[in-house]
Design goal:
Elements (H helix, E strand, L loop, with lengths): L14 E2 L9 H12 L4 E5 L8 E7 L2 E7 L5 E5 L14 E3 L3 E2 L6 E2 L5 E3 L18 E7 L2 E5 L7 H12 L15 E10 L3 H9 L4 H4 L1 H6 L15 E4 L28 E7 L3 E6 L2 E11 L2 E10 L1 H5 L5 H25 L9 E2 L6 H12 L8
Antiparallel strand pairs: 1-18, 2-11, 3-4, 3-6, 4-5, 5-10, 7-8, 8-9, 10-11, 12-17, 13-14, 14-15, 15-16, 16-17
Helix pairs in contact: 3-7
This protein binds FE2/S2 (inorganic) cluster (FES) and fe (iii) ion.
Length: 382
Amino acid sequence: MIIEQLTEPLPGSLMPTLSGSYYHDPAVFALEQERIFEKSWMCVVHAADLAKPGDFKLVQVGREQLIITRNRRGEARAYFNVCRHRGMQVCTTESGNARRFQCGYHAWTYDLDGKLIAAPNLTKMPDVDKDTYGLQTVAVREWLGYIWVCTAEEPPSFEETVLGDVVDRVGEVENLDHYGVENLKLGRRIAYDVQANWKLIIENFMECYHCATIHPELTNVIPQFADGWAAQTKVNSGGVFGEDVEGFTVDGSAGVTKLPQIAPDQDRTYFAITIRPNVFINMVPDHVIVHRMFPTGPKRTYVECDWLFLPDVVDQGMDIDKSVQLFDLVNQQDFDACEKTQPGMESRLYAEGGSLVPAEHHISEFHDWLIKTISPNAQATA
Ligand code: FES
Ligand code: FE
């Protein structure tokens, strides 16, 4: 596997993509797992999925399976799902509520803070120090109503690598804060098992050159997307609703209650940002759509997409179907394109890669970041 150097573009010229092997080679995927997913802050669980102390969910981050839970004080906690005795998975249920985690092999038992609290014959084994043999803790943060984790031994600064990145990226959007994402409520979640490399999904999300071809419903709502440019800035994109469009819905009909703090220029506008390595956020006047990607193999990615609305909208059972339908269709169209692109990555015709047209040039910044991050000497920072 060759770590390649991308060349600077001539204005208006084509730029090279990564070569095909980046999208299917298990060796590349192994490097990505080790140096990106296991070293970056990853957005894993919506806070409401763990509403009460003891609620837990298993998630896969890189090669590691983690238990995400809340302790008795309601604080988010994350642990490697590996028993400190002989390594069995301590928790074998996908999600639920627990007062403690007991390993099914020899019954070592851990509390919600990961502390070893019981083991058979513990009093006869003075070497087994309860404080030393707790579950291995993983760094945790809560932000935007989601729980983020980092499995690195020395996690990079969340402020610099996630918040700093977003502030940079949302420069034009200004005010992700206006959407109050952390106060919104989950209205709908749809999961997609996509048979494509995770980078194809990110690259697809970063450009709208394909919008006119595959997104008729979206371009009806945001006509400027049909020209393929999408008011695209370096790393994020936005678009204004068409004249007759009342809301970000599958048929352009009115949506639900608008978010109260959005600025006037956000009132009929769509904004999208990516937070490396696994989050996309779409913001429209009455809801926010959050995608979390979990790469599960070189050619497979599990995506969970959440539609978030004002709590009243969800609690009162307002009709969100048309809002959900629009981006569910967009997702299906995008993921179908990614799945039909995946086989081409292994063609000998793509051994040297393909081309980025000028409207896609910002994708090369993602490629540069990827190469830098998985290079042998890289200090991975996402
Ligand atoms: Fe967990 Fe033995 S492996 S108690
Ligand atoms: Fe798309």
